[in-house]
Predict the 3D structure of the following.
Amino acid sequence: MNWLITGGCGFIGRSLVARLLFEDGHAIRIFDNLAVGTRDDLATVVAFNDANAQEGWSNGVTLVVGDIKNREDIASACKDADVIVHLAANTGVGPSVENPFQDCETNVIGTLNVLEAARSAGNCRVVFASSGAPLGVQQPPLHEELAPHPASPYGASKLSGEGYCSAYYHCFGVETVVLRFGNVYGPRSGHKMSLVAKFTKQALDDEPLEIYGDGKQTRDFIFIDDLVDAVFKSALVDDVGGETFQIATARETTVYELTEALVAALSKAGVHEPKITYGEKRAGDVERNYSDTTKAAQLLGWQAETDLTDGLQATVNFFCKAEK
């Protein structure tokens, strides 16, 4: 199969590439503007060739440098793709609050460009990376039938992407699958500013860990290997076009509990115990967030397998090894 991965030099993209390399016969094309992930990051996973969007597909991994906001670039890159995994995005609540226009241009116009490219490519499935942010302020567990109430520009832009995926499926027959990721963590997340990656890097730099608010807010933390398995199955399982899935662990963990577990993993790895401080609550953050993953289990045959303690230890060990 021909796999086109937008944002493929990033954390999730590189982890997906590593997963695909376990199987023979896949041609993998990375489309990335290198704003976050880099050539060097991709090289830690696989030897790859630079290419342009006009070149044909070949076995192995190629990198096409381009921006999803450029309609012509992404259209050329998607030609003859069997699967497009659309990971490229402006991520996070904070950046979207600071610059809603940039968030919209990347996450809305960029996604529309990808879907239009998929329509032109023909028989091509699009797996769209979303999150719980479109649902916003809800009484958890989050599930696919809840009415969205985004609490941040990021949630609004991802909701728009989900809407366009639905429209392109029903109007144009493009097989789209929307995956609402939980709070993903794991090895290779060095560029992320998500909680686990940020706190691990701060602890290794002997800096304090600042919790926004009182630490009682909850999240659903999913290990990268489990999430990549969901992406893989979403690309291949029959009769899931037009569907949306919550991809998480179905377990609710407070930020304070996560921090305690991470500190324990750091201590086990020989890292000095960091100081924990508390700051102001961030605008746009929700208090409780975890997911019901029943639909993914039923239609994709998928569920998260990795225990939080094991996942955190694997993550800390990876960061410690990278420091040496």
In short: The chain has a mean pLDDT of 94.
